[in-house]
Write a structure and sequence with these properties.
The protein folds into 2 domains: 6-117, Winged helix-like DNA-binding domain superfamily/Winged helix DNA-binding domain (Arc Repressor Mutant, subunit A); 151-263, no CATH class. It is 46% helix and 9% strand. The chain has 10 helices and 5 strands, in the order αβββααββααααααα. The protein has a 3-stranded antiparallel sheet. It has a two-stranded antiparallel sheet with strand order 1-2.
Length: 264
């Protein structure tokens, strides 16, 4: 009924419970369990602030609070005083109540009492929660739409290939690799080998082509053995291509580029 965050209650609803239930046979069934004891405390709390005589003093007991003792609670719950003290300690540690005790009395205040017992306040908080949830959902949808917009334009392979051929690094033996790279990106929903959205495909292609290998054939792609010398030659070609493009200002390393595998 009363917990620390009203959002945990949102959607579960509530019921009204009359204090007279404590005098009903079901309210007199003892010993209480923890839930029954908690409901007893809720029902005993003052619904409005008031003043009460206590010994020679007049004490103000605020809304959501009441004065009792471990002896009275032990009798009401059908428990030992030790168990009552342990239960009150649990409630206090969970921020459900605040305790003020001395040798004569125990003053209990229920945390968040006004929040949950003021219907208008509760409605307003629930309204704010709904509004915040809708705003969050809208932002989430907008982010999804932004991702979709970034990936919205995927060029036809003819356009993709035609642009590649305008780059000075292009070589006729790149055609098969261009086709394979294009199909891989399309299959991955226009994302690269690192699963990052391709926002500017022309820049991405310009930065990827230096990793292509000249005289690369479909037969080689499908599994022929590559010697160490061929691999070294391939790497030299890559470095030469990158250097050539860099001098022309048409290529620069991608951010955090650590190895040639970044060409994926």
């Amino acid at each position: 009924m009363l917990i620390k965050d009203i959002r945990e209650n949102y959607g579960t609803g509530y019921v009204s419970v009359w204090r007279s239930i404590l005098a009903h046979w079901i309210g007199e069934d003892k010993p209480y369990n923890y839930l029954s004891a908690w409901i007893y405390i809720l029902l005993k709390a003052n619904h409005k602030s008031n003043f009460f005589p206590f010994g020679k003093d007049i004490m103000e007991v605020t809304r959501g609070s009441f004065i009792t003792s471990t002896v009275k609670l032990a009798d009401a719950f059908g428990w030992s005083r030790t168990k009552v003290s342990r239960f009150l300690g649990l409630l206090e540690n969970d921020s459900m109540i605040e305790l003020k005790k001395d040798t004569k009395k125990t003053y209990i205040t229920i945390c968040n009492y006004n929040t949950y017992q003021n219907i208008e306040t509760a409605k307003e908080q629930i309204k704010n929660i709904k509004k915040t949830s809708k705003k969050h959902q809208k932002n989430t949808n907008n982010n999804d739409n932004n991702d979709n917009n970034e990936n919205k334009y995927i060029p036809a392979f003819d356009e993709f290939s035609k642009y590649a051929k305008t780059l000075s690094i292009y070589h006729s033996s790149f055609d098969f690799q261009l086709k394979a790279k294009y199909e891989a990106w399309v299959e991955n929903k226009w994302r690269d080998g690192n699963n990052k959205p391709i926002k500017n495909w022309k820049t991405k292609l310009s930065n990827t082509m230096p990793y292509f290998k000249k005289d690369f054939t479909e037969k080689e792609h499908t599994g022929s053995m590559v010697t160490k010398k061929q691999d070294d030659d391939f790497r030299k070609v890559i470095e030469e291509n990158k250097k050539q493009l860099a001098e022309q200002g048409r290529w620069k390393p991608e951010k955090n580029e650590m190895s040639i595998n970044k060409g994926d």
